[in-house]
Specification:
Layout: H1 2-19, E1 22-24, E2 27-28, E3 31-36, E4 39-44, E5 52-54, H2 56-73, H3 75-86, H4 92-104, H5 115-138, H6 144-166, H7 170-191, H8 200-213, E6 219-220, E7 233-235, E8 238-241, H9 246-257, H10 263-282, H11 285-296, H12 299-304, H13 311-331, H14 334-350, H15 352-373, H16 378-403, H17 410-415, E9 424-425, E10 431-432, H18 434-451, H19 461-468, H20 474-491, H21 509-531, H22 537-568, H23 577-584, E11 590-594, E12 614-618, H24 624-630, E13 636-640, E14 643-647, H25 654-657
Parallel strand pairs: 11-12, 11-13
Antiparallel strand pairs: 1-2, 3-4, 4-5, 6-8, 7-8, 9-10, 13-14
């Protein structure tokens, strides 16, 4: 047995070490797909050795053989089979839940080239490696007497950790969570994102927020619009972004204070507190604390909250909506209804399509409660409706003031009705089909399993444990239904991308983190029922917590450096080089022409009304003279790579300009 287990342990440890170095979040340093002799094969590229091609059939045959050996040697798997034979009905939820987890891990394409399928491959291999190492090393544990001593030390250690995490004063716990998240996101914002919006969506919303900060909904279009064209910006007779106002309004106070980069770290940090509050409201103190710590350790939340995307405030207000909905249904108070409706209204103001999908299960639940309980929740329902209608009115009014029609959103005003959800030909000639929708859905699920926690196991594994157990309750089903609802909504949407992960599912990360916390805490009960574990609940909880800490350590060691490199290397084509050149030369007036591919790096630094004497424009070559003639008193500069040079092209005289 020792001879058999030792190779398994070595293979498992070798796999883990092989998979830890990353070139990017979904690209490994030493193992990847290549083209070899006209075929796609896997390749090992170890330091100091020539690349070793591995035919696909041999790779999968070897992985399959290891999986069969692993299952054969797993006591837990044998116990599961025994339970299935003796009490077949008891394992049905486990089979169904495990199957759904398996569906979320189906690769979005079978060549393992895309980000989603690459994430699945990494997760499959790391899960196999971790399992082989665990089973292989279990046999080499110390003798029972020694184990008893070690177990005693472990129990004392976890008792102290339990006291620190679960019995520390509530205010101290929340203060530490808030402070750690806030400081981490601010450091990432400063050193990785350079306090700049990097994604086109963020850039456009920051610029539009600068318009709002000056007391206007739109700005006049510049006389030479071709120098200021930017994706997601409407530039016709008026100048504004395609986005609804929810996120931009939140940016306004920070813009006036000169610190717009602080908004998302603040809302991300408050979201951690809301995870705690909602978990406590629905399930109890313990679940709230575990949820807050999981949120604190989520790279998806950390990086999204370090940039300027509207997803982070949307998550905050969505969690606030759920918290006051739960409180209001319990208390019936109008105050909770007003706050719940306002919170959902703000999600709609920021992300209307996703907000509707996220809220549907809870709105249906609220309607059922209202029909059953009537007057006991009547005041809550009245307050909720009043707030929600008010915010819907604000959104329709904004649409009317900017796009000329309350039912026309900026997306439609800019791109036309071809951007609406559905199947057929869409923007830029793209064709959206049910098959493409399915591929995008699988890709999003693949990404969520990786990016939510960056564990070497699928991130949704404890959600599967929860729904495999007998302990699930109504709110568990509602939270999961909300995640499924937003997933279904984007099945019909033609556009798909990853930004810090599967961003269209970001708001669903709140419910999924809560369900993960529930799954972790309910694991001991499920383990005793299905796997026949003899360990006491307290001992098993300590083991689960220790195992999750191990997952977090491996995940951060493997993935965090790759994320920092990826996001810090001109993410989405944006960096601070051009602005640094301008500041280094202390230029505070002039027209700075920037290559069109780098315009996103400087565009939001413009005054929307072009009243500042420092203007950033797209470099259009000889056509630049048109803009220079518009501002004859301003000197001209041009960014060329890592240099900033002044130039003096021929200009028209002021008389000619007349």
């Amino acid at each position: 047995m020792v001879v058999t287990r030792l190779p398994l342990a070595l293979i498992g440890i070798g796999l883990i070490l092989l998979l830890m170095p990353h070139e990017s979040p979904t690209e490994l340093s030493y193992f990847f797909r290549i083209g070899h002799d006209g075929r796609l094969v896997f390749a090992l590229n170890l330091p100091g050795l020539a690349s070793i091609p591995i035919p696909t059939n041999i790779f999968f045959a070897f992985a399959g053989m290891l999986t069969v050996i692993l299952l054969g040697m797993s006591q837990s798997f044998r116990q599961f089979l025994g339970t299935a034979l003796s009490r077949p009905r008891s394992v049905i939820p486990t089979i169904v839940s495990g199957s759904l987890l398996g569906v979320s891990l189906l690769p979005s394409e079978l060549y393992f080239v895309g980000a989603g399928s690459s994430a699945v491959l990494i997760l499959a291999l790391s899960t196999l490696g971790l399992s082989l190492a665990g089973i292989g090393l279990a046999h080499f544990l110390p003798n029972p007497a020694k184990m008893q001593s070690l177990r005693g030390k472990a129990v004392r250690f976890f008792d102290s950790m339990d006291e620190l995490l679960f019995q520390s004063p509530q205010r101290l716990f929340l203060l530490v969570c808030f402070t750690v998240f806030f400081l981490t996101t601010n450091l990432i914002s400063l050193f990785i994102f350079e306090h700049l919006p990097h994604v086109q969506d963020s850039i456009a919303q920051v610029f539009h927020a600068k318009i709002l900060a000056q007391g206007h909904l739109t700005a006049p279009a510049p006389a030479d619009p071709e120098f200021f064209q930017f994706l997601q910006m409407i530039l016709r007779d008026r100048w504004y972004s395609q986005y609804p106002p929810g996120h931009m309004v939140l940016l306004v106070p920070a813009i006036l204070l000169g610190i717009p980069w602080i908004v998302n770290p603040l809302f991300g940090s408050f979201s951690i507190l809301l995870l705690y509050s909602l978990g406590k409201e629905l399930y109890g103190e313990e679940t709230g604390r575990v949820a807050a710590m999981l949120g604190l350790a989520s790279p998806f939340l950390l990086f999204m909250s370090s940039e300027f995307m509207n997803h982070t405030p949307a998550l905050f207000f969505f969690l606030a909506f759920l918290l006051f909905l739960a409180k209001g249904i319990r208390s019936g108070r109008i105050k909770d209804g007003l706050l719940s409706g306002a919170a959902l209204g703000w999600v709609i103001l920021a992300r209307p399509y996703g907000a509707a999908a996220l809220a549907i299960p809870f709105l249906l639940y609220g309607l059922v409660v209202l029909l059953r309980r009537g007057s006991s929740v009547g005041h809550f329902a009245l307050g909720f409706t009043m707030s929600l209608v008010l915010f819907l009115g604000i959104l329709l009014g904004f649409n009317f003031a900017t796009n000329g029609d309350p039912l026309v959103f900026g997306f439609q005003a800019l791109w036309g009705v071809q951007v609406n959800p559905g199947f057929g030909s869409f923007n830029a000639g793209q064709v959206h089909t049910p098959l493409k929708g399915l591929t995008q859905t699988l890709s999003s699920l693949n990404g969520l399993n990786k990016h939510l926690f960056e564990w070497p196991l699928p991130s949704l594994i404890f959600v599967a444990v929860l729904f495999a157990s007998r302990g699930k309750v109504l709110w568990d089903r509602l939270l999961l239904a909300s995640a499924f609802s937003v997933l279904a909504a984007y099945f019909f949407y033609w556009f798909h991308d990853w930004c810090f992960g599967p961003r269209f599912l970001f708001e669903a990360s709140g419910p999924l983190i809560l369900l993960t916390a529930r799954g972790m805490l309910i694991f001991p009960d499920w383990s005793r029922e299905i796997l026949g574990t003899q360990t006491t609940g307290e001992q098993m909880r300590s083991k689960v917590m220790a195992f999750v800490v191990l997952l977090v350590v491996i995940g951060f060691a493997s993935n965090f450096p790759a994320h920092l490199r990826n996001y810090g290397n001109a993410y989405w084509g944006v960096d601070g080089n051009a602005l640094a050149l301008v500041h280094a030369q202390k230029i505070d007036r002039g027209i700075v022409f920037v290559p069109r591919t780098a315009f996103g790096s400087v565009f939001p630094s413009n005054d929307p009304f072009l009243r500042n004497e420092l203007i950033f424009a797209r470099d259009l070559g000889e056509a630049n003279n048109r803009l220079l003639d518009r501002f004859p008193s301003l000197p001209a500069y041009r960014v060329r790579g890592d240099t900033l040079v002044s130039f003096s092209p021929p200009r028209k005289s002021p008389l000619q300009n007349r």
